[in-house]
Specification:
With 145 residues, the protein is of the alpha+beta class. The protein has one domain (14-144): YjbQ-like (Jelly Rolls). It has helices spanning 32-42, 68-81, 95-104, and strands spanning 13-21, 27-30, 46-52, 58-64, 107-113, 116-117, 123-129, 135-144. It has a five-stranded antiparallel β-sheet, with helices on one face. It has a three-stranded antiparallel β-sheet with strand order 2-7-4, sandwiched between helices. Strand 5 and strand 6 (116-117) form a beta hairpin. It is elongated, with a radius of gyration of 17 Å. It starts with 12 loop residues before the first strand and ends with a strand.
């Protein structure tokens, strides 16, 4: 980033990485603070932030982070719709995790304005775990205007 000079200094594009240890088989871990810290460290005032999970049995989503019952309800319903055991053929025994992560998605894009993630009042960014506990990698791509 130090190679930028003058008016081009704000045109930053960088990938940051951090790891998250998930606590159990299925979980939603709020990573909003870690992502916002990467935005702050980048110095970008206006732009976009892409959060990407490079795993096939985990995902990323944005949802309410004020009431923990929302997380509980999301996981409960996903486990009902896609049960852990349902006659799957995948030998590793984690087909449900693959299905859930594909449904949730592997990336989210968030607008950056005034050096902050432009999230709603009750929104948070979650790493969703479906085959834990594990250590998961999170990539954050920050692009300045």
């Amino acid at each position: 980033m130090d190679n930028y000079k003058g008016k081009d200094r704000h045109r930053v594009s960088k990938v940051y990485t951090f790891n998250i240890k998930t606590p159990q088989t299925t979980a939603m871990v709020d990573v909003t603070g870690q992502v916002q810290e990467q935005v702050r460290a980048s110095g970008v005032n206006s732009g976009a932030c892409i959060v990407f999970i490079p795993h096939t049995t985990a995902a990323v989503t944005i949802n309410e982070n004020a009431d923990p019952d929302v997380v509980r309800d999301i996981l409960m319903e996903l486990n009902k719709v896609i049960p852990f055991s349902d006659g799957y053929h995948h030998m590793e025994g984690n087909s449900a995790a693959h299905i859930k992560s594909s449904m949730m998605g592997f990336s989210e894009t968030i607008i950056i304005e005034n050096g902050r993630l432009l999230l709603g009042t009750w929104q948070g960014i979650y790493l969703t775990e479906f085959d834990g506990p594990r250590v998961r990698k999170v990539y954050v791509k920050i692009i300045g205007d």
